[in-house]
# Entry
Amino acid sequence: MDELNMIGSLLDEGSPSDEVVQEGRERLRLARMAPRRRRAHVSLAGVGLSVAAAAAAVVLVAVVGVSRSSDTPAARPSSSSGPVTAQQILLTAATQAAQEVPGRYWHTHTITSQAYPIRGGYSILAARMEIDQWAATRPKDNDVFFSRFAGAVPVTAADRAAWQRAGSPSRWTVLSNGDHIPETSRSEAWQKTQNTPADRRELAKMEKDCTSKTCPPPTATSQQAQKVAGNPQELAKLLFPSSGKYQAAGDIMSAFSFLVGQPVPADVRAEVFRLLAKVPGVRSAGEVKDTSGRTAVALATPGRDVDTAVDTELLLDPTTYQILGTQDVVVKAGPSSKGMRPGSVFQNQVVVSLGWSNETPHQP
Amino acid sequence: VTAEAAVELFAAGDFTASYEENFDAIYRYVAARLGRDIADDLAAETFLVAFRKRHTFDPARAGMRPWLFGIATNLVADHRRAETRRYRALMRAGTEVAEDSHENRVVTWVTAEGFAPRLAKALAGLSRGDRDVVLLVAVSQLSHEEVAEALRIPYGTVGSRLNRARRKLRLSLGHLEEEI
# Structure
């Protein structure tokens, strides 16, 4: 035996597992199926809401599925053709993310809201914080934010019907953290705020210098992530500070905040999806309808909000694998969520649109 | 089959066949250099990159297999730190490998002779170009011609790199060379 044979056996790691072979086959199949669609998607990213909405409408027409809402708790299993395990879905999302073409701003439009049961047998999404964010990639550009509280809306189509039967009220009183607070269907005016480069430095310094126990967890920035990119362990340490029983739910939320909030280059975005694919305890919950009526694939893991047992779900577009949002779905209601049925949305973050843009920041 | 027709055929449907034929070999090559964790993702990535670049594939110039190994080698190059970490781990292999692990089984005889740490160290010390040649030959049994196609280097360069690298590897085995 010579030194080459010795090296051969020293380094041999054996054949891939069946799962790995199957997953690679699936990724290649998807790539072969959708090269045109993917290119179109990249150019769509910056165009904005109207095109994205049109695309979503096409998806709605194309997919015949049973929606999961407060009245139909059962999730529809994923169709047999697409990727099936959460890991396969996340690795496909990684492959898709790697294709993105960066621009001057990372532009994301999100609405964070909370569901409240209303007497009359329906639920509304309220406390809807709507943020249209333009995160600059150039150091000298300002980050620009448009934000407002959007008016409350019924959660699902069934909730909407019940709301109409109740006379379509525009004001409600809901129980929030033990207090009865008023909610309205009217949206507030948009507010514009900007972060100058100096503001960004100041903010980073504040986070770094904060020593009290009440300090918010530091936000992982795109710059920090780029520094440790290529080293999955370090990247995981930066992005996934959670621990304990609901670690996977914490990891999903952290990854979401990072991927949606930060202007992250394509290769790092791909790496974050690959990291998520390694988080144990995340399962595919099949196709669901989000609260905007869009079809999504849901990746779920158990979570908890005070006394409510929930499933924390990351929602991805079944065609482009872009992030559509997150939602906590009630598994077992507690005293603070009394009246909420299992399967109904407890709180959510809807990504209205996201993508790279070279436009000048403007109000949505 | 004309070259053009081959490209079309290849673009149209041959990818499936090529995947089935080459995935195992590509996986083992990547895993040998970077370990199974990274190979789980990177082997499939090799085929995706190949698919994206399918129009640059020239069947008249090189075969499918060396072309795929060339792409895999480029992807491996992006993980240099991981590769170095792997060789460092293998330098300690004699003492730290867990019982009954797969890694344990395949390195048993080399470690038993005390070769593993020295070989791993010698591998880590090779230039990237030399290491690419050595591992394509040692791990994946590519012919000199295939290595030249994969790395897009002249045939003669393959021989000279391989000889230079083998000399270093043999030296690392020191006085044990005679017993081989």
